[in-house]
Every structure is written in C-alpha cells, then in structure tokens.
Amino acid sequence: MTAMATAITIAAPLASQTVGDQEEDVAGSLNIPKDITVFGNRDPNIRTATAIVNGTIITQTDIDQRLALVVAANGGRVPEEELERLRLQVLRNLIDETLQIQEAAAQKVEVTREEVQQTYDRVASNFRKSPKDFAQFLREKGSSEASIKRQIEGEAAWRRVLSRRVEPFVAVSDEEVNAIIARLQASKGANEYHVGEIFLSATPETMASANENANRIIDQIRKGASFAAYARQFSEASTAAVGGDLGWVRAEQLPEQLSAVITTLSSGQISAPIAVPGGFSIVALIDKRQVLGVDPRDATLLLKQLTISFAPGTTQAQATPKVQVFANALKELRGCGNANEVAAKIGADVVNNDQMRIRDLPPQLQDVMINMQVGESTPPFGSLRDGVRALVLCGRDDPAPAAGPSFDQIQSQIEQERVNRRAQRYLRDLRRDAVIEYR
Question: Are 287 and 374 within one domain?
Fold first, then answer.
C-alpha cells in the first residue's frame, strides 16, 4: 500500500466484519420519543479541538501532527472543507489510542522505547530513508517523529492487551475449520472478490446527511484520494483498522445489498452509497479471481518494454508522426530476438522485466496480455508527458492450480475474526467508562 497511513500501521491484519455484523440500532432500546424539545443550544459551528482523557491531555499539536499524516496519505490533495471533518475524526482516533495505552498500563503491559524505535526504523526503511532523514521528512509534512512513535506504541500496546485479555479465551474447533474447507471445495470455480468497505452508520433521521457524507467521500476517492486512508478515518466497520480491507469473499458471504453491487463492478471501481440496515456502505472491488481455480492473470511474464519520449511542449499533432513510426516498427518485430535492433532504429529505450504478473498490469492491458502469444507486442500506449510504450511478450510461466488456504490459515482467520469482535466490545467498554473533558 502506498499511502502514508498504510506504511505506518503495524498492527497485524484482523479478520473483517461486514455490515451484517453491525449491532442493531440501540435507539429503540432507549425508548426515545420522536417528538422532543431540546433545552439549550449547541452551536454546530463550534468545533472542540482538544480533550483530556482520564487525565491525559490531547493537545492541538497532537491533532495537527496526526492530521498531517492523514493528509500526506492522500497525497496532500485534501480540500479545505474536508479538513475540518478529518480533524474531528483524528481527535476521535487519538481518544481511542489514549484509552488503549492507558488500558495497557493498567494491565502492566509494557512497550519499551527500544521496541518502538525498532519499528520506527523499519517504517523509515520502507520509505528508503534513514531514521534521521525520515524525521526530517515528517517535519516537512507538518508531523513529527513523536507523533508516529505514539501511534506505534498505541498499536503495539493494544495488541499485547488483546493477546493477554482476549486471545486466550478464543477457541476454534477442528470441525469448524473442516466445514469451511469442505465449502471451499464445493465452491471451486466460483467467483471470489477482494473487497474494500467503508461503513457509515445512520438512524432514520440522519440518513440524508449520512448519504451526503458518503457521496463526499466517494468524490474524493474518485479524484485520487486513498480509499484505505478514508476507511481508517471514517469507516465504522471493524475493517477500518486495516484500511477497510474485507479480504477475499464470495458474493453470497456479503449482505444481499452489497453482493448485488459487487458483482457489477470492475477491478478498481468504487460503488455509489449503498443503503444497508443501520446506514450506508461504500464498497470497492480491488480484484477478482476464481475459488481454487487457475487465474490466467497470475501468470508471470518475461517482457521487453520499448518507450519513445517527447520533448516538453510537444503537441499532439507533432507527436502523431513519431507514434505512427513507432507503431509501424512494432509490426517488424520477430519476437524479442530483434526488439533491441528495432528499438535502436527508432530511438526507443528498452527495459527488461522477467517478474511481471498480468494482474499487476493496468486493467486496460490485462485482457490484451492474456490473449497474446510469445513474440507479439501490445499496441502503443501512454502519453506525451510520460512517453509512449509497447510491451513485447518474450515468455510466460502459467500459474499452478491453487491449493487454497491451509488448515492453519483458516483456523487463524477465524480466531482473528473472533478476537476482533471482542476487541471492538472491549474498546466500547473503555469509551463508556472514560472520563473525557473537551476543551
């Protein structure tokens, strides 16, 4: 994942929770009448910026620096009107993080400075920077080394609390695992979808505003914002912790409203808001495959890439003759054996790649590559700014039939799902009992 928020999250992925797992609406149990009078005013334009959580202060600087990480995760492309909503969500996240660190201290769970530093160093290396250079990079983005280390500490502490207070009480029987393996075998060849989700809760009275909020999020994602970053900040499903990643599921495993939509999406597409019990869902189709089947997009290719470049300021009319020469030259190819010779004649650059999977190519090229024979080339593609390219197929290693997840992998997935559900209840209890003063 390329987003900053993804790079700094170190928690092990937890199994997902679909909308169907959401708790039923509690308003009915409170017996709140529909016709009420509110005594006193609350100015909606006043935004509380800081808080004291059981005596621990969350400062404006804490919020600003964590918000800077979220903005960086979206490539800095966050509209001004979106920042205020993000700021409030960051405050809620910091409150939860504070509660988790406090609970770890109460349970005498310790995360040492050395452990935090080791993780910080690994994150820095993911950005191909030294720890010192990474600290400077964070400052340039408006964040700090201290902010990211606090997040690292909170996530590590919470994992250890769960390993002590939750995981020992979760058990999965062999019968449960074997039943899932049997269902997988029975579903061999069926479509399976890698899904991302964002769930926004709503009551009947707030459905309109929730729908409006969902459309704003979709608009930002379609403009290039990170789905994972928005899921972390706004989704109320448990998958928010892993950037909304629901994992690989079959359509029948999803609520009916979601399954009807996900089967109509192409890889990389995001849905419109979907009305579901308790609110709205936004789903993204990350990828698609067949259960225990052979997906031709898993084939590994041996490729040569030929590229022609254009000087800055070149117009489409000026570039067209050069592109035509390039297209004609591709017709002269006799496999990869003379690709370098052809490239030299037209001044094209050549790059070799022997580890490219078809599914890692842009969607527009995947179908083209699946149907190509060794020695053939793609049509020219690209742009004047980035150059016009063509791929020549030099070889293909087709994938072996999928064996499916192992017994241990399935057992671990079920365990993580149950741990995740209990963790959500655990955190709700901490919120309920917390003394929080907003300033």
Answer: no
Question: pTM for this one?
Answer: 0.60
Element (H, E) at 83: helix 80-106
Nearest to 253 by CA among 178, 183, 173, 182: 183
Task: Judge whether 238 lies within some domain.
Answer: yes
State the burial class of residue 351 (Cβ atoms within 10 Å of its Cβ: 0-12, 13-18, 19+).
exposed
Q: Name which of 90, 95, 23, 151 is nearest 432 in CA terms.
A: 95
Domain that holds residue 331: 296-397
- Best CA proximity match to 68, nearest among 14, 123, 140: 140
Q: Which CATH number does the domain housing residue 116 bear?
A: 1.10.4030.10
Q: What is the dihedral of CA 106, 108, 109, 111, to 10 degrees?
A: 100
Sign for the CA dihedral angle at 184, 190, 196, 198 comes to: negative
pLDDT one-digit tens code per residue, 80-119: 777 888 888 888 889 999 999 999 999 999 999 999 999 9
Q: Is residue 343 domain-resident?
A: yes
The dihedral region occupied by 419, where left means phi > 0, alpha psi between -120 and 50, and beta the remainder, is alpha
Question: Looking at the DSSP assignment, which residues form a beta bridge with residue 387?
Answer: 383
- DSSP secondary structure letters along 345-384: HHT-EEEEEEEEEGGGS-HHHHHHHHTPPTT-BPPPEEET
